Amino acid sequence: DVKVTQSSRYLVKRTGEKVFLECVQDMDHENMFWYRQDPGLGLRLIYFSYDVKMKEKGDIPEGYSVSREKKERFSLILESASTNQTSMYLCASSPRDRMGETQYFGPGTRLLVL
Amino acid sequence: GNSVTQMEGPVTLSEEAFLTINCTYTATGYPSLFWYVQYPGEGLQLLLKATKADDKGSNKGFEATYRKETTSFHLEKGSVQVSDSAVYFCALTRGEYGNKLVFGAGTILRVKS
Hints:
The complex is a heterodimer. Chain A is built from no helices and 11 strands. By secondary structure, chain A is an all-beta fold. In chain A, the strands form 2 sheets. In chain A, strands 2, 4, 5, 6, 9, 10 and 11 form a 7-stranded mixed beta sheet that branches. In chain A, strands 1-3-8-7 form a 4-stranded antiparallel beta sheet, with no helix packed on it. In chain A, a hairpin with a 3-residue loop joins strand 4 and strand 5. Chain B has strands at residues 3-6, 11-14, 19-21, 23-26, 33-38, 44-50, 56-59, 62-65, 75-77, 86-93, 101-103, 107-112. In chain B, strands 2, 5, 6, 10, 11 and 12 form a 6-stranded mixed beta sheet that branches. In chain B, strand 10 (86-93) and strand 11 (101-103) form a beta hairpin. The model of chain B has no long low-confidence stretch (mean pLDDT 94). The interface between A and B is medium-sized, with 30 and 22 residues.
């Protein structure tokens, strides 16, 4: 079974803190994704990585950065957390570039920024 | 760019009722289409998919047919159960490098016993 794990299910942080969200997949997938999920907006892509050390901005990258030093691990970094970054964050992975390939999701991290 | 619109919820049904959740899309080329489901407290999981026109995806009693002429991929189930209560997302490939998806806003389904 494909497994995507996220380091925390719930996080509470203060405004201005640096926040790290970690994601690990065990299926040797090339592609990894970070989304945020907000009611009424669905999932929006923050960043995408297609290989180690390779990344692309998604639709809403402002205020975020990412790191992919190993193939199985993709980290999302909030450089200086703000209250408008309170959200559910979902990580996903998929094999490289076969159109129609499924994305596999982690359980999500619910982040509250106070 | 490619986009998807799905019906707003919440949708509330009684057990054994018929379910339809509408999904329409705009796209260039020939996207693949997906329905993902999110059960309470969990991440998304693939429910079904279709990769070309007229394909029917099916799983767990749910079905959806890729209709290019109406640009639709409506989700249906003949008899819903309480355990189907979840959020359902329609999605399609963007046609860009990397198998990226664009998601609809999600439809909450509540099934009462």
